[in-house]
Amino acid sequence: MGVVIESEEWTLSPLSYGFLLLCCFLSVFLLPDGADRSTSKSSSLFDNGPIMPFLSFRRSFLLLYSLATVMQGLGSLSGGYNFVYFGTNREEMVAAWSAGTAFSLPLGTFAGMISDIIGPRRMCIIFYFLHIFIEVLKGVIMQPSMFMTSLLFALASSVFSFCFESWMVNEHEKQGHRLRLLVDNFWLLTLFESSSLLVSQGIANLLIKDANKGLLSPSLLASLLAIISFLYIRKKWNGGQQKSTFDSYRKSFAGHIVSKKSIWILGWTQASVQFSVSVVSVLWVPTIVADGREVQFSRIFPCFLGSRMLGSTFFPWIFSTASPLHKDGDAYLTAAFVVAGMVLSIIAFDYQDIGVLVVLFCTFHACIGLILPSLASLRTSYVPNELRGGMMSLSQAPANAALFFVLISGGYYRRLSNAFIMSFAAVGLLCAAGCIHALRWCRKFPQQSWHEL
């Protein structure tokens, strides 16, 4: 028997945005200085290292990464609007998403290995050309191109998930900057990604507010950003990159990635995070509007991104060498996985009011904001830089396979309930917590049976 809900629109208090903004502001500008208090006299967000070339590199890379994230956000929002504008029904939308996931499953998996061989900088350039090609298809062919653009956008999203991080790490090592400064970059990537997605949402809403103004507006802006970024890369980083041969890369990948249990554990952890984020991005709307409840989604989604920004600022507080929590950083990462898994379990099996659901989803995104830079830091400890892209793209394969199964069985044939899908993602996160605990146990007791990790 269903719960009867009055047909009254639920609104979010404007104080929520101010509260999240204030928390992020205080968390960023009250950060611990780190271990090098005696040598570093600056406490600015961008000035926590005395090396000026590094500061220039960080600012340039964050600018490029933010522009790429805005492109991704514009592509996602305008693509969804195109489906609605052209009257695409639910089955056709799910079929397009499923085809995109299936298309990126083999190509996205091997794209990271190709990136390691040809260089992540060149793969970033390929990412820009993919976006330009997508927007050209939208502008020239319009409605018949939606299926093709779904395939290409899924591939571009797979490339985006590893190419910029791999490029940043390789360039950081090439320029000879300190490892501590590299770790600081990871939480900044998550912070700037979330804030750039907020910007892209606002821009897309403005551009597609009036359909008569033209559906090409978001496409033209994304193409312009891609061209500007490409020209900037050519001017700023125009040096050649050392390329690996296929045989040498295959041997190195087999020796350092395939044969190491720790890499498989870390890859499974990353896949669990990616799958849970994908599931939440698809199911949070039908979960909140269950039983005919009415809300304004454009006012709720910014709270999710703000929560992820806040979660990313927890990373330097916990993992800074000046923090008393530094030695137990992995324990807090395990706790973040457990909390995220439990939150999804509550959402899946326990009916809640809209306000409680929003708080639970915000808690989940805050945990993800902490988890993402933490996993990037762990990859630096376990994965050689020249193999980073291949490892990250390989970890996408189980997540894409599970997402494809969920879209077909639950979305197209409707054989799986939303609660089951959400609980499946929760189980994956709880298993990921066990994986992080296993890695921590192996580092603490290297003489035990898993010493080969």
UniProtKB/TrEMBL annotation:
Entry's Gene Ontology molecular function annotations: molybdate ion transmembrane transporter activity
| Nucleotide-binding recorded as keyword | no
Q: Which UniProt keywords apply?
A: Membrane, Transmembrane, Transmembrane helix
Q: Which residues cross the membrane?
A: 12-31, 62-84, 96-118, 125-141, 147-169, 181-203, 215-233, 297-319, 331-349, 355-376, 397-413, 419-439
Gene Ontology CC = membrane
The source's superkingdom equals Eukaryota
Gene3D superfamilies hit by this protein: MFS general substrate transporter like domains
Q: What is this protein called?
A: Molybdate-anion transporter
Q: Which organism is it from?
A: Vanilla planifolia (Vanilla)
Upper taxonomic lineage: Eukaryota, Viridiplantae, Streptophyta, Embryophyta, Tracheophyta
